[in-house]
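Thread: quick sanity check before group meeting

JM: Hey all, I'm pulling together slides for Thursday and realized we never actually wrote out the predicted structure for the chain we discussed last week. Dropping the sequence here so it's in one place. If anyone has concerns about the input, flag it before I start.
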Amino acid sequence: MQPIADESKHISLSISHPECLCPVAKALSSPMRVKMLGLLCARSMNVNELAEALSMPVSTAALNVRQLEEAGLIAADIQPGIRGAMKLCSRRVETVSMSLSPEAEDGESALTLHLPIGSYAIAEGVEPECGMVSEHAWIGESNAPHTFYHPDRIRAQMLWFHAGTLEYRFSLGDIAPGQVEWLELSMELSSNAPLYRSDFKSDIFIAVNGTELGTWVSPGDYGSRRGRLNPSWWSDTSSQFGLLKTWRIDRDGCQLDGEPFSPVTLESLALAGCDYVSLRIGVHPDAEHVGGLNLFGEKFGDFAQAIVLRVGYDSGTKEG
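JM (edit): ok, ran it. Output follows.
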C-alpha cells in the first residue's frame, strides 16, 4: 500500500507500517527529487519544465516524477499540450513525520474499527445546504434535513451540511475501559462552500463521550481537481475531496496530525461505565467560521476509508 497525501500538507508515517514508510523514504533519498519538490513549492510544473530547470533529460525527469507520485508526495495529472499530452506536477505535502518506534509496546495491542459515514446514531440541528450521495446516486432530497434519517443513509459515501452535529457510536467489544491506553480517530473532511472554495474556512468540532477535543479550522472546500475515488457521474464543479485528519488522545493530551491540539486527556473521556465510545462531529451555528462540513466515505474523495477508530489497549490487564 502506498501512502496518499493532499492539501492536508502532512503525512504521518510509522515503522509499524513499512509499506507506507519505505516508498516515502526512498523518494526522499535522492537529492534530485528533493530539488524537484523545492521547485514545486512555487508553482505547478510539467515534466519538460522540471527537466529544463534541473538540466536533465526528460526521460530522467519523468522517472523521478513517477517515484514522487507513487510515494504520494506530488500529484501528476495528464493535461493536453501543444505537442500532445503533458504531465502537470504539483506538490501535495509540506511536512512528513516518521515515528521509528513501534506503535504497540510490549503487552499493548491495537483494535481498528470502521464505521460508514452514514451509520451515525443521531443527526442534530442539520441546516441547509445539506445532502448526501451514495456511490451511485443521490439519497433523498437535496437541502432537506430530514434526508439525514432516510433509510438509505447507511449507503452514503459523501454527506454535507452548513451547520449541525452527527454522532457515531463505536463498541469496544471485550476491551475494558481500564485497558485503554489511547484512542485515535481518523476521517476525510473539509468545509462546505457553494460549489467549492479552497479559502473557505469552517470551525469543525470533534467531541468524544461528550467532551469536546477542540475545534479544527478547516482551510477550505477543495475542488480544483477530481477526487481520486469519485464516481464518474459526480459533477466536476462540486466538492471533490477533503483532508485526512487524525486525532489521538492519550494520558498526556490530544494531538492532531502529530501536533499538540488540546489538553483533553484519556481520563477526561470517562470511558468507564459506557457501552460505547461516542464521536460527535459538526459545526456549531454560533461558531466564528460557520463554513459547513463535507464528510467523505471510502468510495469518495481521496482516501479509501470512512470513519476509523483505533484503540490502543493493554492486553495484559483485565478488570474483574
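AS: nice. Confidence is low (pLDDT under 50) at residues 4-8. The chain has four helices and 19 strands.
JM: adding both to the slides.
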